[in-house]
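Troubleshooting: if your tokenizer reports a length mismatch, compare your output against this known-good record of 348 residues.
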Amino acid sequence: MAALVTERVFSGSMEDLPAQVSNVVQVFISSTFTDFQEERNWIMKHAVPRLRKFCQERGLDFQIADMRWGVREDAIDDHRTTEMCLHTIHECQRISRGPNFVAFLGDKYGFRPFPSEIEEEEFKLLKNAALKLGQDPALLLTWFKCDYNMEPTMYCLQPISSQYSHYFDMSPANSILRQQVISRKPTMNFLQPISSQYSHYFDMTPANSILRQQAQKDWWNTVEKLTGLLRNTADSLHFEGKLSFAQRHKYFMSVTESEVQEGLLSGVEVKHKAVCFIRRLDGIEPTHYISGRFTDLKDGGVDLEAQELRERLCMELVPSVIPPSQLYRYTVPWDGNKGVSTANEDQN
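Known-good structure output:
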């Protein structure tokens, strides 16, 4: 075999070369952010130094990929945060010599953005469904623009700053405009940059803080409207048999499930490569002022739709692909002060 490879290389062919043996162990940490701060901090403080030392003694370089850090504002503006996370997971799978993915799943399903790219035919179905439901598709057409250079042709969500120029404006004078932009939420076709509508969304100058706050508020209001429009139309099309379950699910799925799909459920090898921790909070109080950090809330109560999706992920999808020896379930008592207590952190 080696002789054949050598012969092909000398003849000028660089195809089908054997993969180089990596000396890197790179692990992606996946979780919702607000409810797993204690676990993430414990990992960085206690586990990572020990794992790094263990790997160094064996000539390996241990690395952690944690997307709490390093997401640039231009990625937020262009709605590429999820794409960056999935790309990082793929890179960990590609280069890691050992484990490459660790997931923490809790009582919170997490942020559920709509896709930033929608195929042309599907977008037309959504637009027509909106009209059929008596809803104005103008917001869709404002935020999604067709890119005919893509194959297949896609509608792309525009940058936040395309409409809210002060979204990233950090100057004190524009803080109000920036928050106004953030309060409006985006919809997609080729999801346009936030700044295409909210020019002050990322404006960091002190003089623009009011504009920035207004832009942020306006943006998240937009997101809320777009989310409702896309989910209503996707539901209607699925009921009519025009969208599959998978096509519909794109408009309801959380970022965390997207990461788990890429890290565990996409047909990749998971034996000895991935670990999943599923935590339950015992006695969580949905009306507590910090409960929104640890569970999904809607209209002052538990978001039942999000909880149903979380149960499906934790109880059906994950156990169907990961060996029992790599799946850990644990329960932590609800702490009325912090949500998750660090009093017994070693045990937890």
